[in-house]
Protein: Aminotransferase class V domain-containing protein
Amino acid sequence: SSSQSVATVSYEKMEQDKRYQGSQAVPEALLGDATDSPFSIRGQFRDGRAAYLDNSATTPLDPRVLDAMAPYMIGSFGNPHSRTHSFGWEAERVVEEAREQVASLIGASSKEIIFTSGATESNNISIKGAAHFYGKRGKHVITTQIEHKCVLDSCRFIEQEGYDVTYLPVEQ
Structure:
């Protein structure tokens, strides 16, 4: 078996590369058929239904989830961290119940379930937390050049803390 050497690029160099800019910063000609193919980034309708291809950003809400959440968004709207009144107590009870349900569903302990505001916060906590937890074993993190901006930003942050980060290129 032959070992392949992987060319790596610094974050700064990658940040200046036009291939890694958002589509609004890239001339339409460079996007090829990404804007006019049947499943374009602009969205298309098939059989009267939208072909939504950005589930990594947000996902349509299942009506059953909406039904389960509605009472807490309309009537029982307390902050689960406000423990000085019944609205907070009820909200905390419901959040902890949801935590138990998620844990049971995936075979985890409820102490292992952390609710965040979304993917960006989750990625920041995961990357920085893992780097700091394992930092005594070595300060090297490997990621790809095509990760979400929040992942790349977290990697850049830990680089400033003295970690070595390898940004692997992706060819296909």
Observations:
- The chain has five helices and four strands.
- Residues 1-7 have pLDDT under 50 and may be disordered.
- Residues 63-112 form one domain.
